[in-house]
Write a structure and sequence with these properties.
The structure holds two protein chains of two kinds.
Chain A: E1 5-7, E2 10-13, E3 19-24, E4 31-37, E5 43-50, E6 53-56, E7 65-69, E8 75-79, E9 88-95, E10 104-105, E11 109-113
Parallel strand pairs in A: 2-11
Antiparallel strand pairs in A: 1-3, 3-8, 4-5, 4-9, 5-6, 7-8, 9-10, 9-11
Chain B: E1 3-7, E2 10-14, E3 19-26, E4 30-38, E5 45-50, E6 56-59, E7 62-66, E8 70-75, E9 84-92, E10 98-101, E11 105-110
Parallel strand pairs in B: 2-11
Antiparallel strand pairs in B: 1-3, 3-8, 4-5, 4-9, 6-7, 7-8, 9-10, 9-11
The chains are: A mainly beta, B mainly beta.
Chain lengths: ~110, ~110
C-alpha cells in the first residue's frame, strides 16, 4: 500500500481480555517497529523486526505483550489479560534501510481498557 | 543512557512570529536525527533527516539544523496551520536499530 496501515483505529476492551493489533507496513520495507504513546508522553519503543525476526524486544513492558511478523510483511501485537495501564495509542512504523533512513508511521490504534 | 530532551514543552506564537524549537541529545553512536510533525489523532509525519553536524534542511517555513549536541527547528513567519506537536528522534544502531523520541513541543500559532 501507499502508507503504513493499522487496524483497528480504535479498540475498547474490558480489563482482563486479550487484544490483537495489526500493522501492514509499506510494501518492500524490511524493518518494522512498534511504539506506544501514552497521553502527554513521548513515543516509547516496544519492539523492532527485521524481516520476520525480532532482534530487539527490549521495550515490551511485560510478558503479557508479544508480537510476531509473518511473510516479512504484516505484524500483530498481542496484549494478553489487558490492564488499564495498557490504555494508549499503539503506533507502527516501517522503513526500507534500517540504521540509515527515516521511519514512516501509521495512524495508530487507540486502545482503551475499561 | 541514551536520552532526547525537547524544549519548550509548549509554545504559543502569533501568526508571523518566528521562533525555534530545541532538541538536545546524549546518545552513543548517533546515526541520524529526525524531525516529525504530529497532528491530534494522527501518527507522526516525517519532516527532516539530519546526519552530521553543520547540516541544514529546509521545507517551506521550517528549517532544521544540527550540532554535535542539539538540533533546532526554526519556524519562520508561522501560520495557524503549522500548529502541531513537533517530535525529535535520534536513531541508534548499537546492537539494534531504534529511534528514541523526545516528548515533543506542542506549538500553537494564533491568527
Amino acid at each position: 500500500g501507499a502508507g503504513v496501515s493499522q487496524s483497528p483505529s480504535n479498540k475498547v476492551t474490558e480489563k482482563g481480555k486479550d487484544v490483537e493489533l495489526r500493522c501492514d507496513p509499506i510494501s518492500g520495507h524490511t524493518a518494522l517497529y512498534w511504539y506506544r504513546q501514552s497521553l502527554g508522553q513521548g513515543l516509547e519503543f516496544l519492539i523492532y523486526f527485521q524481516g520476520n525476526s525480532a532482534p530487539d524486544k527490549s521495550g515490551l513492558p511485560s510478558d503479557r505483550f508479544s508480537a510476531e511478523r509473518t511473510g516479512g510483511s504484516v505484524s500483530t501485537l498481542t496484549i494478553q489479560r489487558t490492564q488499564q495501564e495498557d490504555s494508549a495509542v499503539y503506533l507502527c512504523a516501517s522503513n526500507n534501510i534500517p540504521g540509515v533512513t527515516e521511519a514512516f508511521f501509521g495512524q495508530g490504534t487507540r486502545l482503551t481498557v475499561v | 543512557e541514551d536520552q532526547v530532551t525537547q524544549s519548550p514543552e509548549a509554545l504559543r506564537l502569533q501568526e508571523g512570529e518566528s521562533s525555534s524549537l530545541n532538541c538536545s541529545y546524549t546518545v552513543s553512536g548517533l546515526r541520524g536525527l529526525f524531525w516529525y510533525r504530529q497532528d491530534p489523532g494522527k501518527g507522526p509525519e516525517f519532516l527532516f533527516t539530519l546526519y552530521s553536524a553543520g547540516e541544514e534542511k529546509e521545507k517551506e517555513r521550517l528549517k532544521a539544523t544540527l550540532t554535535k549536541k542539539e538540533s533546532f527547528l526554526h519556524i519562520t513567519a508561522p501560520k495557524p496551520e503549522d500548529s502541531a506537536t513537533y517530535l525529535c528522534a535520534v536513531l541508534i544502531t548499537s546492537g539494534t536499530y531504534k529511534y528514541i523520541f523526545g516528548t515533543g513541543t506542542r506549538l500553537k500559532v494564533l491568527a
